[in-house]
Amino acid sequence: MVKTYILDKAQNLPFVVESVVENDGGAKATIEDLLKWYNENPDFLAEKLRIHGAVLWRGFGINSSPLLEQLVRSMSGELMDYVDGNSPRTKVQSGVYTSTEYPSEYFISLHNELSYSEKWPKWQFFCCATAPQEGGETPLADSRALLQNLSSATVEAFREKKVKYIRNLHGGRGMGPSWQKTFETEDPAVISNYCQEHNMEHEWLSNGSLRVSHVRPATIIHPETGEEVWFNQADQFHPSTHPKAVYDSLLMLYQGKAENLPQNATFGDGTAIEESMLDEIRTVTREQMVLLPWQEGDLVMVDNMLMSHGRMPFKGPRKVLVAMSPF
């Protein structure tokens, strides 16, 4: 019923499982066909996911939030809410969200989801409900390859000093996400308890906003493969991730006070990360990334520790849904 291949042989990812036959009566393959294949090949899939970091199922018609939820529950048994998330997205139903809703003309840098948190998803599942007219690919990059291709000076600095993530979350009006949407609650006490439980420093400011900071490792060991992987979002949190005009405007708006920016990243000891290092990270990531062009009904399963992901600019409607499963 399927053919399997590697989409980009040079980077060895993702592994593709594509339906090649139609069912009786001419109907295309369905979620039941996908789950049948999955249940017959769990060890094979696990091996391919460890090797390639991501698996793309194509031709099975996974194009809605109910289908995505059904599939994730069948494969992992549980969906994870996007609490403490850092990108604008809409909750479609329990455990299912739209993918990042930044303006379509912007590139979204590659990252491992919630790598700035103590609680991140094991797997991510993306499905395409509406394919864009142009662009909008999801770029993927192997976190092992990123670590191997960065300079030893950059890697050692990040290993030793770690990364401090700083966010200023407004209370309903302002730039960036609000603390209400970030933590999916209107109750400050719930957020304070969450921060204490997850070793996050937090401060309620007089203007109703919330400042949170968190020191996290820049690399970690994958629990199944035993491999060290690049696992941080320093280059994405740092304001230099924006186009130069936006970056300059932010610095002017906040009078050069980095601690007041909507988000920022420093080394764990509070010292500034050299922008040359951030530029190196972005360059290496661009060199390693593979563009995954969407077709309606595509489903991509990503090992969140082995694979970083982002979004290319696009034109026309684009709707990609995401669900996450915990460890």
Overall shape: it is: globular
Assign the structural class, choosing from mainly alpha, mainly beta, alpha/beta, alpha+beta, or little secondary structure. Answer: alpha+beta
- Give the strand content: 25-35%
- The DSSP helix count reads 10
Approximately how much helix is present in the residues?
25-40%
Major sheet attributes = 8 strands, mixed
Q: Residue-averaged pLDDT, rounded? A: 94
Please report the total strand number as a whole number.
20
- In whole angstroms, how far apart are the ends? 31 Å
Give an account of the 3D structure.
- The protein is an alpha+beta fold and 327 residues long.
- It has ten helices and 20 strands.
- An eight-stranded mixed sheet has the order 1-2-3-17-7-20-5-4, covered by helices on one side.
Question: Key features?
Answer:
327 residues, alpha+beta, 8-stranded mixed beta sheet, 4-stranded antiparallel beta sheet, 10 helices, 28% helix
What are the SSEs and their pairings?
Layout: E1 2-8, E2 13-19, H1 31-40, H2 42-52, E3 54-58, H3 65-76, E4 91-93, E5 96-98, E6 108-111, E7 123-130, E8 134-135, E9 138-142, H4 143-149, H5 152-161, E10 163-169, H6 179-183, H7 188-197, E11 201-204, E12 210-216, E13 219-221, E14 228-230, H8 234-237, H9 244-253, E15 263-267, H10 275-288, E16 290-292, E17 299-303, E18 307-311, E19 314-315, E20 319-325
Parallel strand pairs: 2-3
Antiparallel strand pairs: 1-2, 3-17, 4-5, 5-20, 6-18, 7-17, 7-20, 8-19, 9-16, 9-18, 10-12, 10-15, 11-12, 13-14
